[in-house]
From TrEMBL, chain A:
<keyword id="KW-0998">Cell outer membrane</keyword>
<comment type="similarity">
    <text>Belongs to the Pal lipoprotein family.</text>
</comment>
<comment type="subunit">
    <text>The Tol-Pal system is composed of five core proteins: the inner membrane proteins TolA, TolQ and TolR, the periplasmic protein TolB and the outer membrane protein Pal. They form a network linking the inner and outer membranes and the peptidoglycan layer.</text>
</comment>
<keyword id="KW-0472">Membrane</keyword>
<keyword id="KW-0131">Cell cycle</keyword>
<keyword id="KW-0732">Signal</keyword>
<dbReference type="InterPro" id="IPR006664">
    <property type="entry name" value="OMP_bac"/>
</dbReference>
<feature type="signal peptide">
    <location>
        <begin position="1"/>
        <end position="21"/>
    </location>
</feature>
<dbReference type="InterPro" id="IPR036737">
    <property type="entry name" value="OmpA-like_sf"/>
</dbReference>
<keyword id="KW-0564">Palmitate</keyword>
<dbReference type="Pfam" id="PF00691">
    <property type="entry name" value="OmpA"/>
</dbReference>
<feature type="domain" description="OmpA-like">
    <location>
        <begin position="61"/>
        <end position="177"/>
    </location>
</feature>
<keyword id="KW-0449">Lipoprotein</keyword>
<dbReference type="InterPro" id="IPR006665">
    <property type="entry name" value="OmpA-like"/>
</dbReference>
<dbReference type="GO" id="GO:0051301">
    <property type="term" value="P:cell division"/>
</dbReference>
<dbReference type="InterPro" id="IPR050330">
    <property type="entry name" value="Bact_OuterMem_StrucFunc"/>
</dbReference>
<dbReference type="InterPro" id="IPR039001">
    <property type="entry name" value="Pal"/>
</dbReference>
């Protein structure tokens, strides 16, 4: 749902660009008698605009792909953000910085091993590590809340390492965009 | 809100999806005392609403301290001292025999029972207990406590209660339950779609403190068992968890965290004043009071991984208590102050360990269950109840503090977690 809203926003701006491109083409067709030079010039402008639009679209798509990543994993008994999480977290921070009304809850989780309260604290530490990263990259303190669920809400229910690594996580949940 | 809560409670109570804990003994003491509990004489026309002798027999048998004799292997069924043929019981290799008679006088039941010493050929004790039909189970546990304490010198805990949390596979239904220590007579205390953790008994056994996530953050609630009355006690910004009453009932230690740094705090219950006890950038959690009302044991990651520490609440001095292994957490101390019980990682497994506080010797109590957590010590210091994972489900299990006796309380429904053993009422 969050992703949908984002694509909708991107779709709108992309459509606007295409409308601009089309209208200049319309003008060109209406003025069919104008000299070739002008037409070429118009074509060049169109091409540049389209290229820019394509580049922008590609960049936005890449950004959207990063923003679509909302779950970040951790090592056992660790709350250090992994290198592989940083690009996507930076994108979330940029989004929050650009959208001051956006609000997120960071849900911290632990795998089932170890004790309930220690895992609650660990989940909170993980959420807090993500919060600090988002703040350092442009998000505002008022946009972020951390909630730890400890080991109470595993993503998957298995009792092996492959399940555990999916459960040691922070999930970014957008409350508003 | 309150109305809706009450309605959902009513619906749940009528639906009565019970965890139905049943005890399975997996290991007993080598030195268990052989005892014959003879079926009690009952001359009523109707069968008794409870099998009093059966409850006593089960209590003593699964305590691990006694080895009971099946009724079909008994030679006679005496119910008065003069009917006991000591030679028969000696041949059956019994040390003690318990006999008794149940009578009904129109207002209630009475059990007259006798504890007979086979070797000395004498009656050791004679006692009478009275109650209504609904109290027959309590009367049976009372008899068990009486026999247990007289013959072992240790107070019995058969009349105590446990609270625990049950949850479904989807983790969207959490029930806080209350039952007899043998799992019977389960009652629902509170139910929520959000997690419930860390139930703790008040020292008078009248209320439970626990953590509920219902408000969107972890908050601490008190609930009276007799009335069901519920009160939010701590909901400070950040998280509030791990409640622990002081033995005198005047203070509540808990964990509060704002900005991701959990520390130990204490709430004075009379004044409502909150004060901080630890201030460390590491995780400090799982406080538990010692009997002196002054020392707290707790888990801290200040040395890297979780280890157990003690905290003097007056001088604020902190001392490390565990040194063996890289994961020791959730400490509990037996009431006599002699043993520290905690979750210990051995290789890749999490087990319950007992540490002798005088010598420092560590004894792993539970190598046969997996992912052990949430140990809670019986009020007589004899047993530890804890949560473990068995065949993809979370169950309750118990082990004696010396590791000799083991039993499990598997549930027929869902996962059972976070047990807390009551004080002696």
């Amino acid at each position: 749902m969050q992703t949908n809203a984002l694509y909708k926003a991107l779709g709108l701006s992309l459509a606007a660009l295409l409308v601009t491109a089309c209208s200049s083409k319309d003008v060109k067709e209406e003025e069919g008698s104008t000299v070739a030079q002008v037409e070429t010039a118009t074509n060049t402008v169109d091409q540049a605009a389209l290229d820019a639009a394509a580049r922008e679209a590609a960049a936005r798509e890449a950004q959207a792909a990063l923003l679509a990543q909302t779950v970040f994993y951790f090592d056992f008994d660790q709350s250090t953000i992994k290198a592989e999480s940083k690009a996507a977290l930076t994108a979330h921070a940029a989004y929050l910085a650009a959208n001051s009304t956006a609000r997120v809850v960071l849900e911290g989780h632990a795998d089932e091993r170890g004790t309930v309260e220690y895992n609650l604290a660990l989940g909170e530490r993980r959420g807090e590590a993500v919060r600090r990263f988002l703040l350092a990259n442009g998000a505002a303190a008022g946009q972020i809340e951390v909630v730890s669920y400890g080991e109470e809400r595993p993503a998957v229910s298995g009792h092996d390492e492959s399940s555990y690594e999916k459960n040691r996580r922070v999930e970014i949940k957008y409350q508003s965009r | 809100m309150v109305m809706r809560l009450m309605l959902s409670l009513l619906v749940l109570l009528s639906a009565a999806v019970h965890a139905e804990l049943t005890i399975q003994v997996t290991q007993g003491k080598q030195s268990a005392i052989p005892i014959g509990i003879v079926p009690f004489e009952w001359d009523g026309l109707q069968p008794l609403p409870e099998d009093v002798r059966g409850i006593v027999n089960d209590d003593l048998g699964r305590s691990g301290y006694f080895r009971t004799l099946a009724a079909e292997n008994m030679i006679g069924r005496p119910y008065a001292p003069e009917q006991v043929v000591f030679g028969d019981w000696k041949n059956l290799r019994q040390d003690f025999v318990v006999i008794g008679k149940i009578t009904y006088d129109g207002s209630g039941y009475a059990v007259d029972f006798h504890v007979m010493d086979v070797h000395q050929k004498v009656e050791l004790f004679h006692h009478r207990v009275r109650g209504t039909a609904s109290q027959l189970r309590d009367m049976a546990h009372y008899i068990s406590d009486f026999v247990f304490s007289k013959l072992t010198g240790i107070p019995g805990v058969f009349s105590t209660k446990i609270v625990y949390v049950t949850t479904n596979r989807e983790r969207n239904r959490f029930n806080l339950n209350y039952a007899d220590a043998d799992g019977a007579r389960e009652q629902l205390i509170f139910t929520s779609t959000q997690p419930i953790i860390s139930p703790a008994w008040s020292p008078d056994g009248k209320r439970i403190a626990y953590v509920s996530f219902e408000s969107g953050r972890t908050a601490i609630y008190f609930q009276e068992l007799a009335t069901g009355k519920r009160q939010m006690v701590l909901n400070m910004k950040g998280s509030n968890s791990a409640p622990a009453f002081s033995p005198d009932g005047q203070r509540l230690a808990f964990v509060h965290s704002e900005g991701g740094n959990p520390d130990i705090f204490v709430l004075d219950l009379a004044s409502g004043n909150v004060s901080r006890l630890t201030d460390h950038y590491a995780i400090d959690t799982e406080p538990q009071w010692m009997k002196d009302n002054r020392t707290i044991v707790f888990t801290s990651s200040r040395a890297g991984g979780p280890q157990v520490y003690s905290l003097d609440t007056i001088t604020r001095e902190v001392k490390r208590m565990t040194f063996q292994g890289n994961y020791n957490a959730r400490p509990r101390v037996t009431d006599d102050g002699r043993k520290l019980i905690y979750v210990h990682r051995e290789d890749e497994g999490f087990h319950i360990a007992s540490q002798d506080l005088a010598t420092g010797a560590v004894n792993i109590l539970t190598m046969d269950t997996q992912l052990d957590e949430s140990p809670s010590v019986a009020p007589n210091g004899s047993m530890v109840i804890y949560a473990a994972t068995e065949a993809d489900r979370s169950i309750l299990a118990a082990v004696s503090v010396d590791g000799d006796v083991k039993f499990r309380l598997p549930s027929k429904y869902g996962d059972v977690r976070e047990p807390a053993w009551s004080p002696i009422f």
